[in-house]
Specification:
This protein is 25% helix and 15% strand. It is α+β, with helices and mostly antiparallel strands.
Length: 177
């Protein structure tokens, strides 16, 4: 039986290389049974008055759905706990950083490295901050393309992409006068 990817240097060494060069001792890791956690102390985020601590946890066998993705490509990321956001998982307050059914080029994968994931987190935290400043739950603005919420066929499915396309088309044909 092959050992878990998280304990194999051939996996974690390239994953963390660039992030370690960039963040040095501010980036730490910890192994637990079946998980590898990276803790980043003090990530600077535009607009936030104080740096934000980030936790990224990879699981050998995640207890949450990965929607067909490999566990190493779907870590749980936590930052700024309890902050109001339209893109967090309700069960554990993890950041929802991409739509799980998007093609690989629209999602993060471990082959892109931890530094790339941290920059996605930094951008996400800025977008959350701006969304809260512009009204939050009351029509706050998400500055980039907004991924769907929920899964197709579920009562929670709502696609902001679809709504944006409808708005771009206009209200539709006008009735005859």
């Amino acid at each position: 039986m092959p050992s878990w990817y998280g304990v194999q240097p051939v996996w974690w060494a390239p994953l963390e290389r660039d992030a370690r060069l960039r963040f040095g001792s501010d980036l730490r890791h910890a192994y637990r049974r079946g998980s590898l956690t990276y803790e980043l102390t003090g990530l600077d985020v535009i607009g936030e008055p104080d740096p934000i601590d980030v936790s990224i946890r990879f699981y050998e066998n995640p207890l949450y759905p990965t929607y067909g993705q490999k566990p190493q490509d779907f870590p749980r990321v936590h930052a700024n706990p309890g902050a109001s956001s339209k893109h967090r998982y309700t069960g554990d307050d993890a950041l929802c950083l991409w739509h799980p059914l998007d093609p690989e080029e629209r999602r993060w994968t471990s082959s892109k490295g931890l530094l790339d994931l941290i920059e996605i987190v930094r951008t996400h935290l800025f977008l959350e901050h701006y969304w809260r400043l512009t009204g939050g739950e009351h029509d706050g603005q998400w500055l980039i393309e907004d991924a769907p919420h929920g899964m197709p066929g579920s009562g929670a499915w709502r696609s902001s992409r679809r709504q944006r396309r409808r708005a771009a088309r206009g209200p539709g044909p006008r009735p005859p006068r």
